[in-house]
Amino acid sequence: MKRKLLVGIVALCMVASVVAVAAASTPVVLTGNDLTLEQIEKVAVDGARVKVSDAALDQVKESYDTVLRAAVQGTPVYGLTVGVGWNKDQPVFRKKDGKKVLSPELLELSRRFNIISLRAHCAGTGAYLPTPVVRATMVVRLNQYLTGIPGVQPELIGYYSDYLNKGITPLVPSKGSVGQADITLSSHIGLAMVGEWKVRYDGKVQHSKTVMEQLGMEPFVPVGKDFLSILSTNALALGQAALAVREAGHYLDVSYPVFGVALEGYNGNVAPFTEEASEIRPFKGFVEAAGKLRKTLEGSYLWKSSQTRALQDPLSYRSMAYTLGNVEVALDRAEEALTLAVNHTDDNPAVLSDAQKGADRSPQTANYFFGEKGAIFPTSNFEMLPVLREIGGLKLALAKMSNRLVMQTIRLEDPKFTHLSRFLSAPDNPGHAFGAIQKPLAAMNTENNLYAIPTQLGATALAGNIEDTAGCSLIGIRNLEKIVDNLYDISSLQMLHTTQAVDLRKDKMGGAISMSPSTEKLYEAYRGDVPFVKQDRPYTEDIRKGAELLRCYPDCQ
Fold it and tell me: How far is CA 311 from the centre of its chain?
């Protein structure tokens, strides 16, 4: 799969290409319980269509019927029988075919309350999110609806599906959430579906009502819990995090050959990565990373004895299997937490159609049941701490890697370590060579250290002092994006150094060194974009070209 998304810097207009790809793609079938991060990326970035399973849609219908049944039996339902300014002197119920049903007047008030609530919660700031992030948000939320717990109208499922499959993307601001459900941002998706907000469609920004009219769609009419389930969710954070974690995974994959080239340019010692050395202290991740490094370096000259090779390299080189293994473990944990979150809803309250009251219920918990089967329970499932814990761990692991890459690169400029020229200058180059470009490395590494700081430690009491804790999810996720973005540039600068070192070493040794097939493939691809530095030149374009290559490698070859 080609990597069309550079998280954090992706262009805003991809709708036309999304629709074109979606038309030809195999749909991602949504069931509510088995959505993967890869599938989220396929829908969000590659434009794959979605298809809702029949069984999942049946769950949605049963859940909505449960909400109506609860209201008829007198259970308070926010947005339907409470919170709508209902006049107590008017009937809540009517008789229809001998059965008690909700009155048309109550339903109309609920619809008005739903629309008003969507409007009142649209309060985001900052630039609008990239199209892929909003699409990721919608596919995550659609999948969560299919668990049957949110209690939304079945019609809402069709709107999310149509918006994804037809390439309609609501404009959603990037800032304005404290992370206990992104209510001030996700509300824009619902407001677009009711025909009162803007969307990207057919390559341009248009009013949603105009687009829906063009496509023969009527505006959505929310009722009951619809507005609450649309806006009171962390689907935006989860969707954005899914794409960021996928991008971090790709960066980790390409980091192995990047380090392989670095070690070959340095003439480093492979002994710390051997099976014998790594099995002495078999930490999870470390052993796997050491094995991947051995595979990356298969066939390299580094496995041959050398009189000029140091017995022990600087720690940034020697402990690279620990560095990579640390990221491997953190990435696995982040993927696991996100996969669980996108397949389990965070709604409050939660509609439990199959819950059995039973005789052993306490008087307190029995209050949430109506009849012997069916309940609406308050929850705290909007809490993002389990996910943020793992996102934070991934940020720390990547920031540590950032520091070690910078140290490795700076060591390459020192003849004491490499036995090559100072600053890797070419013969007959009287200039600075790479002496000045340590500074962007240090600057980006400092930024990464700041971005790795936890964001969920502080909170301001909000909403009448009820919401007195917060995770600041989106800030942390954006910081993950920024770290990965910086790491591509850091690795690009490292490649500028390491390929130069390889060429200088080949020249020094009369060409008598061989790279591994894995490192040579990356070396050749890089040299196709960035030539050897014979004389000082501006390096800005070299850094950009190298980063672009690494972002798509090896698919761009």
Answer: 41
